[in-house]
Amino acid sequence: MADSYLFDGQSPNEHVASCIDCGAAIALLDHPETVAEPPGGAPLEPLAEPPPRLREAVLSAARRRRNPAAVGVATVAVPYAELVAGMDDVLAELSPVQWAAPVPKHGTVRSLVEHLTANDATVARFMGVPATVTRVSAGVSGGNGTAPGAPAGTRTGPDARAGNGTVSGARAGTGTGPDLSAGTGAGQGVAVPEHRRWREQAGLLLSRVAAGSEVLLGVEVALAGARPARAPLRQAMIQRTFETWTHTDDIRAATGRAKAEPRPEHVHMIAEFGLALLPRALRGPRRDVSATIVLTGPAAAPGPSRSRPPPTTWPCSSRRTPPTSAACWATGGHPAPSRTPPRATPCSPVT
Amino acid sequence: MSDMDVRARLAAGDLDALADAYDRHGPYVYGVAVKVTGSQAQAEEITQRVFVALWEEPLSYDPALGSLRGWLAGRALHESALRARVG
Question: What is the pTM of this model?
């Protein structure tokens, strides 16, 4: 667009005045606040203030072109969206060294993201996300001892805890390996294929669920996990939310970042999902006992949440009172991070 | 709310996220359009088109390639240049 400027003898000002492209570019350069918000700085003045009526006009036009998610759909889509955004934030900050950081049971951060992408694909395929998006190089890995519906590849028992020791060791830094807490802000973003694949699939899954009806949430689909299990789409989306949360925290732990919890109401929703699956996680013949689990902490709902009693209910043998987020981690096969194990105390019979 | 958060919430069909994006970036989008077209009426139309496009196809915004404000301003600039060229 500078050709005529170079050869027709115009002055720069004359050219900018007559060239649309250059005029627009100059407008942007003169007002850099239009392309980036100042980090932590005071907001800059926009070029012009739009009329107040424009806001409603924009929102009305948007509603006409695409319906917002139904209320019931939003209750599962929005929590998943928030955790997808959280993971996206974390992955975008990872340096090449951090992509290779060790994660217990999954190998590296990179292979953990592949694992999550593979598990998300279970629901994404049902929602019609193209196979070119859902296909990933890593298979769905599932360890022994995984509850049906709990994130595949998670494992209960001492192995998982032993694995955490590896994380601690990596974070502590022995002096022989790279400092995994350093190098943040590398902004790999789109350059990492595993990140791009996961984000594209998660976004399409979100879009398709959001565009669906509440009736669709009742359709039974396969849950991700080592043991076959099916549940309504609503539950499958909560499982996706749950696994995105736990694996984001796995990556945070592996790269020396602080853990973060979802909103309390979302944690409660996840806890209800996990507790409902506990009876199906039992191995061997069922025993005629039941347990009452009273969720505590900011995510606890009023009143106790009970695990489903077996067909014949006998007086319960124990009563556990974990913080709600710890209950989530436990049902997912993760040891709750840095928390005192829940107490077990006698309780009155379940009726 | 981060740009990634806005993108995900828009994909989840949350119209409040669009309202939030408009409140944060609307004046800049409108400002670019006014500056280039010199017309408030055209700038309003362009602003509307840019935000509706974001709502319809939120995944077309890739946070790895830049800020949401930059993406919106770039679209406004393109729309404005087309209209200014047509006249």
Answer: 0.69
